[in-house]
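Raw record, unedited: Helix-turn-helix domain-containing protein
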Amino acid sequence: MAGSPTVRRKRLSRRLRELREERGLTSEEVTKRAGFSRGKLTRMERDEWTRPNPADIEKLLTIYKVTDPDEREALLTLARQARQRGWWVSYSDALGRGAYVGLETEATRIRTVELMLVPGLLQTEDYIRAVLRGDDVTDPDEVDRRVEARLLRQQILTRADAPTLHAVIDESVLRKITPELRGQLQRLLDLQEPHRLQVVPDRIGPHAAMTGAFTILEFTEDPTVVYVETTDTSLLLEEPAEIRQHEDRFDRLCAVALSPAESRGFIQHLLDSM
C-alpha cells in the first residue's frame, strides 16, 4: 500500500516537535538558529504545511543533534514521502484539500457515526447522485466529478489491507432511502465481516450522538484521531481527552443500537416492504 502523504506529514510534524522538546529548546531558539521566518517552525510542528522541504528538515536534525545515520535518513525519507501528492489532490474541486481522505487512506480501523447520511464508504452511485441533487448540485460535470471521487475513496475497502469499518447509523438515515434507491439498502445488506453495521432505532429516543456525527480513525504507527464535519467546517481532534470522549460516546451508542444481525433484519424488512 502506498503511504498517505497526509499521515506521513503528521508523523513528521509530531517527531520534530518531540525532538525539540527532548533537547529542551524553545521555538524561538530553533527559529533563530535555523534562520527560519517567524512562525515557520510552529506551522511545521502543528502540521500546518503542505510540502515539507527536506533541506529544512536537514537543518533541524543538525540543530537537534540527530547524528545516527539511520534515524536521519528515516526522517528525511519521511519528508520526501510527505511531499508526494495523493490521488485526491487531482479532485480538489470535489474533495477540497482532501485532509480527511488522506487520513482515511491509511487508517487500519474506522468507526463512524452518521445521523443523516449513509457513510460515504458505503454509498451507491445512485445514492450519491440523489444526495447531490438534494444539495442543489446540478452541473453534470461537477456531479460526475464528485461521484467519481467518492467511488475512488471506496476502493480502500477492497484492498488486501483494507481497514475495518464499524458504522453506526440512525434509523432516520434508512427512512430517507426511497424505493428508487433500494440498491442502497442492498449494499448495506451486502456488508460482510470483519466490517460491522448497527442501526440506532428511533424507539430509544435521544442518544449519545445527538450532538453530531463523527468518525474515529486508528492507525498502525500513529495516534488515533477524530474527524468531525459540519455543514460549514470540519475539525480534526487529536487530544487524548477528546479521543476518549468520542470513543466512550461510540461505545455507548453501540450498546443501545441494534446488533449487526438485528440491523440486517431491520434493513431487510425495509427492503422487502418497498
